[in-house]
Amino acid sequence: MFLIPAAKEREKAQKAAAQKKASQTPSTSGHSTPTARAMSPIGTPTKSSKKAGSNSQGARKSGTTIPSRKNSEGLSSMLLDLSAAGLQPREDESPRVDEPTPRVAMEREKLLEEARRELQASGQDVKKGVSLVVIGHVDAGKSTLMGRLLYELGRVNEKSRHANERESSRAGKSSFSWAWELDGTKEERERGITMDIAMQSLSTAHRQITILDAPGHKDFIPNMISGASQADCALLVVDATTGEFEAGFERGGQTREHLVLVRSLGVSQVVVAVNKLDQVNWEQARYEEVREHLKIFFGQSGFQSSKTSFVPVSAMLGVNLVERKSPEASFLDQWYRGPTLVDLLDKLEPPVRDIESPLRLPISNVFKGQSSGICVTGRICGGTVQVGERLRVLPGDETAVVKSIDLDERSVSWAAAGSNVTLYLTAIDPIHLNIGSVLCPLNDLVPLAICFNARIIVFDTQLPIISGASVELFHHSRDVPATISKLIANLDRATGSVTKKNPRVLTKGTSAEIEITLRGDGPGGVAKPIPIEPFAVNKDMGRFLLRRGGETIAAGIALEIRH
Ligand SMILES: Nc1nc2c(ncn2[C@@H]2O[C@H](COP(=O)(O)OP(=O)(O)OP(=O)(O)O)[C@@H](O)[C@H]2O)c(=O)[nH]1
């Protein structure tokens, strides 16, 4: 597997940063907490400790790295933290704002025509592109599954595999050897958990799939939300081991929470890998039991049964991922004749892409390219973008020019809605590029909001919601403090019609129209507007989640932006 340019450059930059930091400060790896990571939105030194000699791509880490970003003021944690990464430009090395800017190659109409043609061609000789977030309770085997799948598909070479085996065994963590392909940072490897979103791509016979491996640990739900908001479909991994499935599925487990979150963020197709069947003697009865539990929950959470599918696997042994030919697979073969995991992935249907609307590209990560200036990653939520285009960065007054675009490890001249891209930008000072900012055309700006009306569905929360409640609002990879400033009406869940005006409280399960007002950080902090659009205008730009005290209390859609 080859390093994509962006990953390669980021890795070099991070290595340099790590060396610099190591020489300046005592190492904190192994002790760093989620909040410590929050201070370095781009590649904290520990994020990129890939081994010398590994020639596998490793995963692009995407999304926010920040479980709880307290500080959204001024030089907030969402800003590109050049100093923390050791990438602060020297005084004589100010950003290259005067370098020649590339030119736009095509008129918008011509670009749209090409994008439409490509979308229609999908399914014949062109593979359809889908993005897939891998979700599930902590330790269900998500990273192991992805590592092994990449290997089975020839995307991890033997050298890298042996290096992972050797190093994980040396660290006394040999059972995590497959997961190390995805969990590339020192801290992730030491703790044996995924903390950030790792991005990989793989291709099946008819699909080009962008994989976002999400953390299962509840402390990293914000990162999981960032990953889910960049995905079309989900792969849920559950641990079939007796007691383990139940622990993940119960209240407080992440299986249910992740499913509810992805559904709220617009994901409707889910493939469930019932994993670790080797741990339960490949029992069909256990597989069926797990499947039945989940089917009931899918029904209750608004998933259509035609859009959910199940597959029994052992990630560790590589059984039923791509084939069932190994000796271990013979046990499963006695009762299972259905599709493999890859067969199911190959049938995922990409949702309708909104290429005609103006460009909306929420930034999920910012990092410095070694030779190509500054890079941002994110998923295009509407419209198209091409090399040479000048874009506005919102919030703020700045613009940037697209120098080049990477899509699925290829350099492309344009990309359209639904693609997870890396843009190399020029003609901008990196300080103006923040996680959560949105890139859009100069003449079609995304609205900025401090106050907006929304429709929400209240989750299974212990404390009812009252007017004045403080919450954290999650929109793409950004989270900001907010207040539920008004409870406008209770709504009928099915029809949306008003059932009661000005309710005093919102209890679990209710649907309501509310007013949300953003707050500044801390007492006296000034609220900063965020780019958000009514759901009716752009679905992806109009969805959000509300959390309080580490619990997701509601999902919502923006109805009307108050200017
Ligand atoms: N026996 C067995 N063990 C497995 C299998 N898949 C994963 N494991 C083990 O389960 C443990 C957790 O695996 P990970 O892949 O790190 O789990 P994860 O879901 O990615 O964990 P987080 O990302 O931290 O939530 C490791 O010790 C794996 O070796 C399997 O199919 N069979």
Automatic annotation (TrEMBL):
Residues 1-74, 85-104 are annotated as: Disordered. The keyword Cytoplasm applies. Residues 23-35, 43-74 have a biased composition (Polar residues). It catalyses: GTP + H2O = GDP + phosphate + H(+). Keywords: Cytoplasm, GTP-binding, Hydrolase, Nucleotide-binding, Protein biosynthesis. GO terms for biological process: cytoplasmic translational termination. Belongs to the TRAFAC class translation factor GTPase superfamily. Classic translation factor GTPase family. EF-Tu/EF-1A subfamily. Component of the Dom34-Hbs1 complex, also named Pelota-HBS1L complex, composed of dom34 and hbs1. This is Elongation factor 1 alpha-like protein. It comes from Boletus reticuloceps.
